[in-house]
Every structure is written in C-alpha cells, then in structure tokens.
Amino acid sequence: MNIKELTNKYIMNTYGRFDITLVKGEGCILYDENGKSYIDFASGIAVNSLGYNNPALNAAVIDQLGKLIHVSNYFYTEPQALLAEKLCKNSFADKVFFCNSGAESIEGAIKLVRIYAKKFSKRGYKIISMKNSFHGRTFGALSATGQDKYHRGFEPLLDGFTHVEFNDSNAVTELINSGSEYCAVIVEPVQGEGGVNISDKGYMRALRDLTAKNDVVLIFDEVQVGLGRTGALFAYMNFGVEPDVMTVAKPLAGGLPVGAVLARDYVARAFEPGNHASTFGGSPLVLSVANAFFDEILKDGFMENVLKSGEYTMHRLTELKAEFSGLIKDIRTIGLISAIEFYELKAKDIAIKLTENGFLTTAVQDRVLRLTPPLTIKKNEIDLLFLSISEILNDNK
Ligand SMILES: Cc1ncc(COP(=O)(O)O)c(C=O)c1O
User: Fold this and answer.
1) 30-72 confidence digits (pLDDT tens)
2) Atom of ligand 1 nearest to the CA of 136
3) How far is CA 35 from CA 45, 308, 358, in A?
4) Which CATH topology does 3-53+300-395 take?
5) How far is the CA of 41 from the centre of ligand 1 (A)?
6) CA of 249 to the centre of ligand 1 (A)
7) Cα of 132 to ligand 1 centre, how many Å?
8) Of 89, 97, 188, 315, which has the maximum CB count within 10 A?
9) What fold characterizes domain 56-298?
10) Which atom, in ligand 1's list, is nearest to the CA of 101?
C-alpha cells in the first residue's frame, strides 16, 4: 500500500486531505514525493512562520537534543525560564503557563478565569464569547467556539458560554450589566477560522473599558494571529489595548507542539500548585526551539519586513478585487493574514486549483480563501501566487 492508502486505512477520518504527500521543505517552498514544488501560503495553518529548514531552529533542536528532551515540571529548566521572561518583557503579561497546543492554552485560560472569579472577584463562572469564533476542539475550547458546525453531535457542551455578535460591544455591555454571572470575555482580535474578521479599534477599546470597570477578565485568543502574524509582535498591539489574559500557540516553537497562557499577576495569582498542570508543557526541547523562534522574530528589521510584505499583499489584493469585482465580494487583510471572500465560488475549489498550480492555501469558510504564508515570504513569491489566482479567476469569469 502507498502512503495515501495506508493513511486512509489506518488513520481516523477527521481531515479532508489534499491529494499530495509532502516530504520536505526549504524556505517558503514545500516538495511532494514526486519532487513537485509548492509555494506555501498556508504555513501548516499559521504555524511555520519561519518557513522550512530554518538554520536557527535546526540549530536549537540539535543543541538541545544532546542535553535534555524532557523532564517534569517538578524541576527548573533554563529554556522555560528564559522564554517566560522574554514573553513577559515583550508583552503586557507578568506570568506564563506552558502547554502543548492552542486548545490546551484555551483550557488553561478558562480554568484560570474561573478560579480567579471563585477566589477573588464577586462574579460567577460564565464567559462571553463571540459568534463565528474558533478556539479549538477540546470540550472547553469547543464550548467557547461560536460556530454550530463544530458543536454538532457533541452536545451537551461545557456549561457557561454565551455567544454574542463579533464587533458589537453593546451586546457584551448588556450581558455584563445584566448581573454578576459573567467573569470573563474571550475574543480573537482577528477571527482566523471565522474568515479573517478584524476587530474594530473602537470595539476593542469598549471591551477593555467595560471589563476593567466590572472586574471581568478580558482574554485575547492570539493562537492564530499572535507572534508577528499581523505585523505586530502581538495582534492586540494593533488596537492600542491590552488584555488581562492571552493565549498563544501555533508558531511559537517553529512547528513543534506548544501553547502558552500569558496573564497579568492579579489574575495569575489564582493558580496554586495542584490547580493546573501538563506533563509535556514547557519541555526543554520544545522551548529551546521556541526561544530560537522568538529571538528571530525580535531581530531588528524582522517585523518591518512582515509589514512590508503585508502592505504589498494588500496592494495585490486590492488590484485583484478591482479586476474581478464580479467574483470577489470582499478582501480582508492585516499583516500577513488575508482573506479573499467570493460571492459564489467555493474557496475549497480555488484552493485545489492553486495546489495543482503549485501553491498551498486554506479555505476557511465555504467562500473564504485564507492566506497565511511564512512571515519570511518574498515579493516574487507573492507575485507568483497572484498570477495564478488571476488565471484561475479568469477561467471562472
Ligand atoms: C484562534 C484559535 N484558537 C485556538 C485554536 C486551537 O489550536 P490547536 O489546533 O493548536 O488546538 C486555533 C486553531 O486553529 C485557533 O485558530
């Protein structure tokens, strides 16, 4: 049996896979088993922000492999201490909890705000979340997620989530003022899976003011859009407001599984030994690579380049929309996360055609094609993608 047949026979059927088997990568290019190349505008779903075969990440893996892969969190390790310091010194946060994925970081945040509410605030256990949001597939994260299609078949979900319209601060105000049941608000500054929906600045400001006034914890889920994706180190920096708790994951360890909950001291103090834990969370191997990743994105000029590539993408998207105004309903972009929303065309069909032409992209909603290239993508690679999209759209005119 070949790889595809083995996969379909022995692996549970949870993914609609593209019909290609990837074997290696270099820079922003991936190669399949037949040697065909693909320019990557997916990045393993916003993970491989430094592309493939990155020398700094490779060196960190090799260096740490010979020292220590895993020890339990009953001991101190250097990679954890160093990364925690870097994350705090470069953000609003005072304290960090390390885990292994985005969903786990959401679970950690949910537990943290619940125990904070129980110990220190006069508020209940409920959390306000947004419609169209995505927070992950474990039960807490799934319950926070504001899209029915992910819930179907798994009810009853975790109690205590109310979903309100994204970008509507009045809906949040109403709930918070309705009593003391709600202890937290969770929001993605940019909804990634929801279709690259960008918060309004006024909305973020209103959420910040409202939650601060009422001792309600404001959680930003930056699993997809944190760590440089929007052209700022953290997405919240685009909006001029800081959260109390923030989740990050995907790109943090350059492709190794990782997640982190960042929090201000006043909330973080609610956790005591025994409240929350993870066997693998914060492993020396993974966090050594995360330190290397973080050092790379903090280097002078790195974020300026992301912004430049983001501005160029915005320019190309604007041209594309003007040329294909009958097909493209909307374009949305911030830094290097972008969406092309079609009136009728199915995003998945466009993504498949692009794959045939040697470009990897992702379809997020039925009609939304998402671009999340490595942050190191080059102008000529962006040009090649847009040429291919134009060709495909011309065939559909
Ligand atoms: C905003 C957001 N939160 C949480 C998650 C869940 O992350 P993971 O798949 O690592 O569990 C995702 C995944 O796409 C995400 O986009």
Assistant:
1) 999 999 999 999 999 999 999 999 999 999 999 999 999 999 9
2) 6
3) 22, 31, 11
4) Aspartate Aminotransferase, domain 1 (3.90.1150)
5) 18
6) 8
7) 13
8) 188
9) Aspartate Aminotransferase; domain 2 (3.40.640)
10) 10
